[in-house]
Design goal:
about 80 residues; mainly alpha
């Protein structure tokens, strides 16, 4: 599920869309339980899915490096 054809793929394979939304729901619950701030303003798993499908970089969007730092990981992907 990558690239320009993602929307079409999710239309063709709705079980994959449901799986992604379920995973996003688990992510939101885990973030809330960890006391992490919702910087993107997501209201539910569907809103995360819509945000993810847009493929646009929001200036407030958290990078993977930001996330690794937030969870206390002792490494980064950029080598910093």
């Amino acid at each position: 599920m990558a690239g320009k054809h993602r929307a079409w793929e999710f239309e063709r394979y709705p079980a994959y869309k449901r799986a992604y939304i379920k995973a996003f729901e688990k992510m939101l619950i885990a973030r809330e339980q960890a006391g992490l701030e919702n910087k993107c303003g997501w209201t539910d798993a569907e809103s995360v899915f819509r945000w993810w499908m847009e493929d646009k970089t929001d200036p407030n969007q958290m990078t993977i490096d930001d996330w690794l730092h937030e969870i206390g990981a002792d490494y980064t992907l950029t080598g910093d």
